[in-house]
Amino acid sequence: MAATLTDDAVGKTVVDAAGKKFGIVAKVEGDTAYVDPNPSLAESVMAEIGWESADEEDYRVTEDMLESVGEDVVLRGEL
User: Which residue, among 78, 49, 8, has the nearest Cα to 33 in the 3D structure?
Assistant: First the structure.
């Protein structure tokens, strides 16, 4: 069963199954998270306070690609 994405995932770190950092969740839209692979300090803070934004550099990650959503968002497998 896939993990469920909510707005609570915004600002969380995205890691692979081995714990390698992939980026942070910049925005959640439906079952898709937009992950910023190289967030600046300002982008990290804006995501934390809920000023969501996605741009052309962000990766799309869907719920079926996720192992779990907790303290971190964990992808299935390794990068």
Answer: 8
